[in-house]
User: What shape does this take?
Amino acid sequence: MATISFQKRLILVYSLFVTLLVVLISSFYFFFFYTEGEKRIKEDLTNRGEKMASQLDTVLSTMDFVTIDLLSQWDFMPALATLSIFDREIPENRLAIVDALLTVEKSLYRYSIMRDFHRVAVYTPKADFFSNNFEPRPGANIIKGWLNDNPMLKIVDARKGKILILPPYPDQWQKENVIRVFALMRAVVGQKENEINGYIEVQNPYSLIEDIFTLPPDMAIAIDVKTKEGNVLFQNGQHGATPKGFAFSTTSKYTQITIELKYSRKDAFASLNSIILFSMIGVISILFLSLVFVRYFTLQLTKPLEKLTRHINSIDLGTLPLSVDLQSSHNEIESLNYAFTLLQNRLNESVKREIVSQSLQVQANFDSLQAQVNPHFLFNILNVISSMGLESDNMEICEMCDHIASMLRYSTSTQQRDSSIRQEIEHVTDFLVLLKKRYEHKLTYVIKIDENILDQVIPKIILQPLVENSVDHSFQKGKQNVHIEIKGGPLESVGSWYLEILDNGCGISDEKLEWIESEIKKVKNRIIISKEIVELNLGGLGLVNTYIRLLLYFNDDIDFSIENRLSGGVKIKISKGAGT
Assistant: This one.
């Protein structure tokens, strides 16, 4: 199964994380941006609609104020009643009619009315026409025709004195430069039912309405303003809102005019979409730069690891001591490099010790061979001697030949450089049996080894040189009867054990014992502390050499002691795992 490298996996994980983070943040931002945008659009539409309604009410209330002001004058309504009711063919009414005409004209010719309004006109059913505008007065027939043919007057009559907002129309009384106006009209109701004594019409330029409802060209809000009667007061011709668009509607309690504002979602978000587009470009740019940075950072982070990998692949015994400089500012990489350097140094030391150990093993085998001459030749000789023993019916000769052959096979075998305590005991037993044949009753020995440690692994030919040294040293000092005791057993900690070789000889002098302990200490310092390679004297398997082999084999996890016994003789003790 193909696997991706650590570097690619790191880039992939970081890239996915950065992409996911950017997508989540941008999604939340765009969602918040759209939500707030909709909220602001709705608030703006509401504020605009309420502001337009307020401005329109202000304009119309000002126009209505003129009608109320005229009707509030004490002589205005009686004058209109005189003009509407009195028979003008009767001579006695002429003075009253003239006074009424003068009263109405006087009411209109005021500065505030002439300044603030395009036209304030008063009509009577008998075709009287009054206006604050000094345009030539139309003829009575024209006015009478306008009164009879104007359908809006029937609506004004039906409202019985309440105001009526007239949709925009050309000023019918202006001869030149006709402008569009809108008007507020009110009927002047008489004393009798359905009696109309006249009409008051207040006109203003339609531009006032356009100023209120005209929006900036880039704002495509559809505006529809209608009177209670359904007459269109203003429409800007924009498209209305879609079902998912925005809309606002309000109806003035004062004028009953309904204002509707509609804003399609497409037009409303036109400006926001541009901002979102630039924002998305920004987000994509940030994402791209982040991925580039992730790739660069990952390559820089894994570069020391790749260098370390190449160095590991190039390591062999010849380049093992060489270290590598990763030149990294990351603490973890420095720690890894430091740990690898320590591992490399330990491996290098182990190799050195292995080389020394193998040298010592070869030396031991060589010394054993040197001591026993040519094993093949000896085997052949032993076979001849054993055959002669059989022919002469001397089984003792056969037995000695068997022990000698067993010792030769064990000591000259190079297939394994280590052995077990069981094999060492068998080897030293063969040796003691042979010595027993030589010294007979002068040499006795006892071997007491716990079964639990017999399979523990130790270097070959450790016990036999120590036993041989004890026997030779005892007889050389004039001891007549030598007793050798070999003991062994487990210690308290798991995997630890001890071996003891005791003799009843003359012991070792204090000077000699001090010299041996000093040599052991020196050798230990050179091997363990100074990391030196200690060379042994070929041909010697003494106490110090045996200790060196144990020290190198167990890597300082061995305790070797030699001391004089109180009852006489020497005790050599080897302890493994006892805490040196």
Observations:
- The first helix runs from residue 6 to 72.
- The CA atoms of residues 10 and 328 lie 18 Å apart.
- The chain has a mean pLDDT of 84.
- DSSP finds 16 helices and 16 strands in the chain.
